[in-house]
Write a structure and sequence with these properties.
heterodimer, A: mainly alpha, B: Immunoglobulin-like, 4-stranded antiparallel β-sheet, 3-stranded antiparallel β-sheet, about 25% strand
């Protein structure tokens, strides 16, 4: 879901850059001293997750983890994504500097929404696995929708793009919600302190 | 409650194995293009950074004035061959579009083939000799080219040391920001 350089037209690029700047600023403002290590760990996880391709049968998949990051960090996901994606651009030429804003927006914004949804479910139903699954799935679906929107605003044909995005994301949605369920259940049991500040049990 | 989660878990596993049966759709990151000029055609290969080929993707060849001089489609192994009438000058842009924001580009130099073509005379004997020579050179170059291609593919994979280096950068940033915050909070006290 990294959009390459030279695909998008000016309008989505500007909107993405402005949105990313606002998000990163808002996230940085919310980061307290105690949050820094957590933001760093999640950022490292985001950085690695999309680099490692695992071959499951005939399909090569990689994790995105934006919804899980959203549960753990909230708005602080924006700076975490900023660091992770910037490093991917600099080290591996994934994406590009001009599309960095758009990529941050699509991934982090969807992750934050998914994360808040997951938190709400955890708080209400007290089922961490359900919250994790919902956050993981929602994060990927929204990321796909936002990516498709950026492409459509740049002149891609609506139906073809929407179909392609849907097809490509279906397996990832399932895998991501599964991983989300496992990770959040585990963290909830092992490190409830990482949820104390966010969920107010 | 526990049995409900167990059933859901089984459904999820079943769904996952179902989706895995679907054909591979482009979800990789970086699209790499490797291309060169051969006679009056641009020949090359497009592949994702995990080494899988970019199948059935649109290929565009533009000259240095941004005019489209040739169009084509990659085959099942990611290879393409686009016929172009005339290519001169540097900076010929070969673009492969795999859709969904995946775009790969490379620039090739058109000068070399122009030189060869302009040196062809009317003399028949000489013509034949040159054609034969080119055939020989091409067959000699073939293994080299495939080796180069292999090397390109190897290089485009993200290797472990770079990934670990990236994690190191992030940890370093965490340290720096902790240090700055610490200093600030101490100043305020």
């Amino acid at each position: 879901m990294h959009i390459s350089e030279g695909v998008l037209s000016g309008y989505p690029l500007v909107v993405g850059a402005v949105g990313a700047a606002i998000g990163v600023a808002a996230g940085l403002k919310k980061i307290e001293m105690n949050d820094i290590p957590r933001v760093g760990i999640v950022s490292a996880a985001l950085f690695v997750a999309s680099l490692i391709h695992i071959n499951v049968g005939p399909v090569s998949v990689h994790l995105i983890l934006n919804g899980i990051g959203g549960i753990l960090l909230g708005v602080q996901l924006f700076p975490a994504y900023f660091v992770a994606l910037l490093l991917q651009v600099l080290l591996f030429q994934f994406g590009g500097i001009t599309v960095l804003g758009v990529n941050i927006c699509t991934m982090a914004f969807s992750g934050v929404i998914g994360g808040y949804l997951g938190r709400y479910v955890i708080k209400r139903a007290n089922q961490p696995w359900l919250g994790g699954a919902i956050a993981g799935g929602t994060g990927v679906i929204l990321a796909g929708i936002f990516t498709a929107m950026a492409l459509i605003f740049s002149g891609d044909a609506f139906i073809i793009t929407a179909k392609l995005v849907l097809l490509a994301h279906l397996p990832i949605v399932v895998i991501e919600s599964l991983v989300g369920a496992f990770v959040i259940t585990y963290l909830y049991k092992m490190m409830p302190s990482s949820f104390l500040g966010v969920c107010k049990r | 409650m526990k049995s409900v989660s167990k059933i859901l878990f089984i459904i999820m596993i079943a769904l996952m194995s179902l989706t895995l049966a679907q054909p591979h759709v482009a979800d990789a990151h970086k699209l790499n293009v490797f291309a060169y000029l051969e006679d009056s055609a641009v020949v090359g290969e497009a592949y994702f950074n995990d080494g899988s080929p970019a199948k059935n993707c649109e290929v565009l060849v533009k000259d240095q004035d941004e005019r489209v001089v040739g169009k084509g489609v990659t085959d099942e192994s990611g290879a393409f061959c686009v016929n172009v009438d005339s290519l001169e000058g540097k900076g010929i842009l070969v673009t492969v579009n795999a859709g969904m924001g995946h775009l790969g580009q490379t620039t090739i130099n058109g000068d070399a083939s122009a030189l060869v073509q302009s040196s062809i005379h009317d003399n028949n004997e000489e013509d034949k000799l040159i054609a034969e020579l080119r055939e020989i050179v091409r067959s000699e170059l073939e293994p080299l080219r495939s080796e180069l291609m292999q090397l390109h593919k190897e290089l485009s994979k993200s290797n472990l040391s770079e990934i670990i280096g990236g994690i190191g950068y992030i940890f370093g940033l965490v340290g720096v920001s902790l240090w700055i915050k610490e200093r600030r909070s101490r100043k305020n006290d």
